[in-house]
Amino acid sequence: MQFQLTEVFIEQIEQLISEDNRTALTELLQEFHFADVAELLEELNTEDATYLVKLLDSEITSEALMELDDDSRERILDNLSPSEIADELEEMDTDDAADIIAELDDDIQKQVIDHIEDEEHAADIVDLLRYDEDTAGGLMAKELVRVKETWTVAGCVREMRRQAENVTRVHSIYVTDKQGKLKGRLSLKDLLTAPEKSHISDIYIPKVDYVNVHTEGEEVARIMQKYDLEAIPVVDDNGILVGRVTIDDIVDFIKEEAEKDYQMAAGISEDVEADDSIWQLTRARLPWLILALIGGFVSVSVLGTFSGAMADHAALFFFVPLIAAMAGNVGVQSSAIVLQGLANDSLKGSLFKRLIKEVLLSLLNGLILSIILVVGGMFLLGLDLLFGVTIAISLISVIVTAALIGTFVPIMLDKRGIDPAMATGPFITTSNDICGILIYFTIAKLILGF
Amino acid sequence: MQFQLTEVFIEQIEQLISEDNRTALTELLQEFHFADVAELLEELNTEDATYLVKLLDSEITSEALMELDDDSRERILDNLSPSEIADELEEMDTDDAADIIAELDDDIQKQVIDHIEDEEHAADIVDLLRYDEDTAGGLMAKELVRVKETWTVAGCVREMRRQAENVTRVHSIYVTDKQGKLKGRLSLKDLLTAPEKSHISDIYIPKVDYVNVHTEGEEVARIMQKYDLEAIPVVDDNGILVGRVTIDDIVDFIKEEAEKDYQMAAGISEDVEADDSIWQLTRARLPWLILALIGGFVSVSVLGTFSGAMADHAALFFFVPLIAAMAGNVGVQSSAIVLQGLANDSLKGSLFKRLIKEVLLSLLNGLILSIILVVGGMFLLGLDLLFGVTIAISLISVIVTAALIGTFVPIMLDKRGIDPAMATGPFITTSNDICGILIYFTIAKLILGF
User: Where exactly are the transmembrane stretches of this chain (chains A, B) (predicted)?
Assistant: First the structure.
């Protein structure tokens, strides 16, 4: 039952566009779900995509535009006039419309807003532009159903029917006092089952979760997940109900955050996709590589200072990549666990206790790995015992240090208000490479003496 | 307005529990949100937590139990009798109840089910146990509101009020034919605004997204996200409506999947949290470290075969960690972008085109990095030009190879039906380390001749 976009179908659409066959196109596409129209738009060239956006009903294309990735949307919007963009925004919820406006150039923004016919809608959009996009204010929509606590159920149902026309989904009905201050909520179910003559003040639920316009998006996501909410009302600093955030915006937010963290861990510094241009991908990937290169320079220098050992203990140098790899891997493991703990707010107990635990854990890992290393090294590579012990002690020390760095650095960054996700991937690997090599040769020097 | 769990509060609760002061505890906690009760239970020892679960109303504790992590929940359930567990399940939605039952030992499962008084509820739970937990059948709940197409609006509202009592949230009303086959849907809003005497068959929306009981959870998540659905009906192989999946289950699913991928990329092979035991954490972290250690052995051997170069070109060995680090970082970057493309189903075009793009991209990155390396190496480290050129050519070759491996391996694994997330983190780093060192020394040998 799922729609599947085929090559044949795309060619058929392209053919119809080149023939300017508006009737056939409208007939073919009018029953489509907006998400499918969006998929189709992604596959067409900008000119054809723009043609379809102009042709089809704004009710569908406005939703489809929201589903496109930023680049495709920008390319299409560049080909639309301010009044055509305004037509699309007219059909959008205020939060989506505000997101689109924010992507436009300043001079076009004003023209587009002036072209929006519904003045209340335009005013709501302008109002939303004031908020930072990662706050509840930036995530919320103005569309919601609100009733006053003094109304009767019958009056409320009448009023609700009127308001609900502009609201795609009614999750909750919010109850306010005369001044517009949020007092509680009511579900559609409650309203359906209440006697018609009772007052809202008798039946509403005075306990309601809410957030302030300035609450960070991450915190909104946390609250909505913790309390399993599908929508949460947003109030301003005076407690006045100004909007609501719905779970679908939060799902996108959670996904984006997870992808950003994943990319950060992989050493990619901008939000890119596989189909972005080579130039964009280079810009996203080069910075961390340059950092790693600089780290590489440092390790070259460190190794250079121990070059005296080469004559008698050449094998020491063969183990450098092994030591560096273990340091890097252990560091990334430790930092990943701490980062997820921080993200889920599940990191409890003192930093000291956590570091002790990490020491014990890495000692255990290090011991097992060292035994494998020594036994393997002596039997497979024919190392002598003293050399084997040197490598083993170094490996344990390097693993413990790497685990401590991987645990300590993200916690410290987080305490100082810096995004702890910085402290993983290339950053942790590079610093642990250098520390690891330094520790390794220092211990070797002490034991073997060179 | 948010609840904040304080040390003082926890101590107060522990004190009241030790005094067996049931009245005070009930009074204090009865107004609590279940998510907050869950937080409290996590902080108490198993005995105290069990005490509270037994004391408080099942309506709250059943929901709180669902919020706990698996270990804490298991510890508490171990201390409850089958009939006490049944009391909790009685209050849960069928999907949650089935998840809990599935966690219990086989012999206890039967006893618990026998103790559930509501026979229909028990039968529904048993029915759900048939499905694999990662399919739509495993994710769905039996609770939903269904109406027949032949009913009138008035009759429908009556019937709906009755059914809605068991359904926490009414997202959509599903319309079926007499045999129970899914025909379409209706929103509460539509029902509120329709004339009382019209028939459901006149007003329902015949287009409805649905999934089969056997559809994979990942696919359900994809569809619900793509079409912005808050609930999706589930049908069996005969098209009979059997349940619905709601967005809150999917949010958890998406989060878990993202965390699993992130941990895999960080070289952690089991789903662990920072607060798990040292033994669990070791078991999750050791396998990939052993793999990296074996990879390290290989690189030791590779370096050993080039030991002849040490006399004349010692500096070659100093650059080993730099080359290995660049190979690892580039490989992880490439694989991360491909993996996200695969996960989002946004990877289009042929494998050949993608590899060509990756070659161009990595050539560009490699060229820039090589220039920095040669200039920096000559000025800072005083390398001679021939040596600098050797390192530069090696670096470019290593980066291009690493990028190709990082792109090719996950795509190949995915085509063969193996989880492509395997091909990142330690696996990619280790194989790229070895390849990188091999390429580096081979090129150096060709240019410098040793």
Answer: 288-309, 315-339, 359-381, 387-413
* Interface check A424 vs B, CB under 8 A: yes
Q: What pLDDT, on a 0 to 100 scale, did the predictor assign at position B1?
A: 46
Report the distance separating Cα B121 and Cα B139, nearest Å: 16
A278-448: CATH class: mainly alpha
Q: Which of B211, B207, B290 is nearest to B243 (CA)?
A: B211
Q: Which two tokens mark A180?
A: 């517009």
**Mean pLDDT of all residues in A42-55:** 92
Which pLDDT value is given to residue A166? 66
Q: Where are the alpha helices (DSSP H) in B194-236?
A: 200-203, 217-226
The CA R_g of chain A, rounded to the nearest whole Å, is 30
**Distance (Å, rounded) from C-alpha B445 to C-alpha B393?**
12
Q: Which residues of A touch B437 (CB under 8 A)?
A: 321
Is residue A327 less than 8 Å (CB to CB) from chain B?
Answer: no
Instruction: Give the pLDDT of residue B284.
Output: 85
Q: Which two tokens stand for residue A424?
A: 């993983």
Least trusted range by pLDDT, from A168-177, A235-244, B156-165, B388-397: B156-165
Report pLDDT digits (tens) over A353-372: 888 888 899 999 999 999 99
pLDDT, chain A, mean? 87
Q: Which residue is closest to B373 within chain A, CA to CA?
A: A293
Which regions of chain A carry the CATH code 1.25.60.10?
7-127
Where in chain A is CATH 3.10.580.10? 145-249
CB spacing of B303 vs A321 below 8 angstroms? yes
What residues have CB less than 8 Å from A173, skipping those under 6 apart? A145, A146, A147, A156, A160, A185, A186, A187, A188, A191
Å from A440 to nearest chain B CA?
Answer: 13
Residue with tokens 């759900």: B128
Partner-chain contact A326 B293, CB within 8 Å: yes
Region(s) of chain B under CATH 1.25.60.10: 7-131
DSSP characters over B314-376? THHHHTHHHHHHHHHHHHHHHHHHHHHHHHTT---S-HHHHHHHHHHHHHHHHHHHHHHHHHH
> What ipTM goes with this model?
0.71
Residue spans in chain B of domains classed CATH 3.10.580.10? 145-247
Those residues of chain B that have pLDDT short of 70 are 1-3, 164-170, 345-346, 348-349
- What CATH topology corresponds to B145-247? CBS-domain (3.10.580)
Q: State the smallest CA–CA distance between residue A39 and chain B in angstroms.
A: 10
CA-only gyration radius of chain B, Å: 30
Sign of the four-CA dihedral A304, A308, A314, A315: negative
Residue of B nearest to A403 (CA): B285
Entry field: residues in chain B: 450
The Cα of B21 is separated from the nearest Cα of chain A by a number of Å equal to 27
Class of domain A145-249 (CATH, top level): alpha beta
Contacts of B209 in chain A (CB under 8 A): 1
**A209–B188 C-beta distance less than 8 A:** no
Interface contact flag, B255 A251, Cβ < 8 Å: no
Token representation of residue A362: 């890495």
* Confidence at residue B446, expressed as pLDDT on a 0 to 100 scale: 93
Fold of B7-131: MgtE N-terminal fold (1.25.60)
According to CATH, where is 1.10.357.20 located in chain A?
278-448
How far is the C-alpha of B21 from the C-alpha of B42, rounded, in Å? 21
A403 vs B247, higher pLDDT: A403
Q: Is the pLDDT of residue A1 over 60?
A: no
Would you call A336 and B263 a contact, using CB atoms and an 8 Å cutoff? Answer: yes
Q: Which residue does chain B place closest to A250, by CA atoms? A: B251
- CATH 1.10.240.10, applies to A7-127: no
Q: Given an 8 Å threshold on Cβ–Cβ distance, is A337 in contact with B2?
A: no
